[in-house]
Amino acid sequence: MVFTTPAIRGLREQYPHAHLAYVVQRTAAPVVANNPHLDEVIVTSGRRGLAGLRDDVALAAKLRAARYDTVIDFHSGPRSSLLAWLSGAPIRVGYEVPGRGWMYTVRVPRPREIRSRHAVENQWDLLNAIGISIPDAGRSPVEMVVDQGAADGVRGRLVRAGVHSDHRVIVVHVSAGNPFRRWPLDSFTALVAQLVRANASRRVIVISGPSERAAAAQVIERARALVGPVCAESVLDCGEFDLEELRALVDRAALFIGGDSGPMHIASTSAVPIVGLYGPTLPVRSAPWRSSQWPSEAAEVGGLPCRPCDQRTCVPGDFRCLTWLTPEQVANAAERALRRSIG
C-alpha cells in the first residue's frame, strides 16, 4: 500500500483535473484516507466467502455505474483483477499473470525472479505502460498524512508515560511472527539497553503488532532488568498503536528502528531517521523511498550467497541473515542516523 503512494502523486500530476479514486480494504485504508491527491477512497469490507462475493458484486456495480476511464490494478490478484474487469473501464492496466492477464487491456510483464530493483519502481511499471515516466524519490516520496485526532491521542499517551519535550524518543518495532523476519529477542533486548545507556535523555518505546505483543513485553521486561532501576523508566510500554497512531508517533520520534515490514514503511512516510533490519530482503528493493536528506541506515549481514531468498525455506537452517546481525551493528547504525539528523 505505502509503495503505491508515489504513483498516486504521479497520476495527479499527469491528470490534474481527473477524478482519482482508490479501492482499498478496510485494514489498510488509513494509509490513503487523507491523501491530498485522491478525490475518493472506496473501502471494501474484506469479507470472505459468500458475503465477500456479494460485496464484490455490489462494488463492481458501483464502479461500472461511475464509468471510470482507466483502472490500474497494482495487486493483480484474483479478486482485484475480477473487479478491474467487471468495472467495464475501457483501459484496464495490470500485470501479465497466468489465468488473469486477459482481464486487462494493457498487460505488464512481472518477472518471477527477485530483482535488485525497488518495489516502487516495480509498481510504477504500470504507469510506464500508459506513458507516465518514473520520478525520483525526492520529488515523489511515499506519503501518509498524519491524522490530527490520532496525533492528539498519541501526544496524550506520551505525556502520561512521562515523555517530555526534551526527551529524544526512539521507536523500536519488534517483529517476531515470521521466522524469516525475526531478529532474536535477546538482540532486541541488548539493543534497547545499549541505546538507553548511551544517553539519559532517550526514551525507547517498544512497539509490535497484535500477534507479537508477548514478544515486545519480553523485550521491555528484559531490557529494564538489564539497565537496572535507574534507567528502567527510559524503556517504555505505551500499548498498541494502529496505523494512524503509528504514523503520528514517528513524527514525535528522533529515530525509528525495525525490520523490513509495514511499520518501517509507515515510518518512511515521515522525515524521521530510520534504521532498517534487512534479513532475507535487500535495501535496494525496499529501503525508505524518500528524499536522501532524511537519514536511512541499512543494518544487514553482507556476503551471504543465500540472500535474498523467497522466504519459503532457509537453506542454511539457522536464519543467519538475521541471527548473525549483532546488536552492536544496529546500535552503531542508530548512532550514525542520529548524528546525521543533528548535522
**CATH architecture of the largest domain, please?**
3-Layer(aba) Sandwich
Sequence of secondary-structure elements:
HEEHEHEEHHEHEHEHEHEHEHH
| Poorly predicted segments | none
Structural class by SSE content:
alpha/beta
* CATH level 3 topology of the largest domain: Rossmann fold
Strand order of the largest sheet: 8-7-6-9-10-11
Helix percentage range:
25-40%
Distance between the termini: 32 Å
What's the CATH H-level superfamily name of the largest domain?
A: Glycogen Phosphorylase B
Q: Supply the number of structural domains.
A: 2
Can you tell me the CATH class of the largest domain? Alpha Beta
Total of DSSP H or I helical runs spanning 4+ residues = 12
Output mean pLDDT. Answer: 93
Give your account of this protein's structure.
The chain is α/β, with parallel strands linked by helices and 343 residues long. The chain folds into two domains: 2-128, Glycogen Phosphorylase B (Rossmann fold), CATH 3.40.50.2000; 148-342, 3-Layer(aba) Sandwich (Rossmann fold), CATH 3.40.50. The protein is 38% helix and 15% strand. It contains twelve helices and eleven strands. It has helices at residues 5-14, 49-66, 78-86, 119-128, 148-160, 185-198, 213-227, 243-252, 262-267, 283-286, 320-323, 327-342; strands at 21-25, 40-44, 70-72, 91-95, 106-108, 168-174, 202-208, 235-236, 255-259, 274-278, 296-300. The strands form three sheets. The protein has a six-stranded parallel beta sheet with strand order 8-7-6-9-10-11, with helices on both faces. It has a three-stranded parallel beta sheet with strand order 3-4-5, sandwiched between helices. α6 (185-198) crosses α7 (213-227). It is globular. The two termini are 32 Å apart.
